[in-house]
Amino acid sequence: MQENFRKQITSLGRLLMVFGLLLVTVFMGIFYLKNNPDALKSSEVYEVLPADESEMVLLDAQTIAQSGFINDEGVSGVIQNCTQCHSAKLVTQNRMSKEGWEATITWMQETQNLWDLGANHGKIVAYLAKNYGPERKGRRQNLTNEDWYELE
Ligand code: HEC
Known about the structure:
This protein is mostly helical. It has two domains: 1-41; 61-131, Cytochrome Bc1 Complex, Chain D, domain 2 (Orthogonal Bundle). 52% of the residues lie in helices and 0% in strands. It is built from six helices and no strands. The protein has helices at 2-35, 61-67, 75-82, 88-92, 98-111, 121-131. The longest helix has 34 residues, at 2-35. It starts with a helix and ends in a 21-residue tail after the last helix.
């Protein structure tokens, strides 16, 4: 009888110990989160825009300056969409025509999980082609104001 009672006490003690340890762990977790409220948030700097967002969230001048992108129309959409997977440098070190940027974006969409840019697509490509277009053209631009005649 006494032996049985001792066994019961011992297992009760173990149970209390496990429970106590669990409680301490939970309290430590709560304490940590209280002091680091951002611990569970992802560390991404910029918000991902839903693809169907027609208006991009306009960023403030300081954020734009820190991004390394030229501040011009459409820059907010570029920063929010193009700095999620790689640095801005990877974008700004490039010089491409409109077609080149289109091709790069298509390539990323097909192979790198880049999302549909939705209504911002056109604005982003226009921004990139204007501010990060080819610096020097290898050949002169086509003449646009000539009246050509057909060769017989
Ligand atoms: C979903 C992830 C993702 C997003 C978002 C993304 N890219 Fe990329 N991009 C990649 C990956 C992956 C690479 C290849 C990186 C490497 O080679 O190290 C890449 C490479 C590039 C390159 C270099 C291509 C080359 O030929 O070297 C450019 C330029 C680029 N991205 C531009 C952009 C632009 C502009 C946007 C916004 C419209 C964008 N990226 C958004 C994933 C992404």
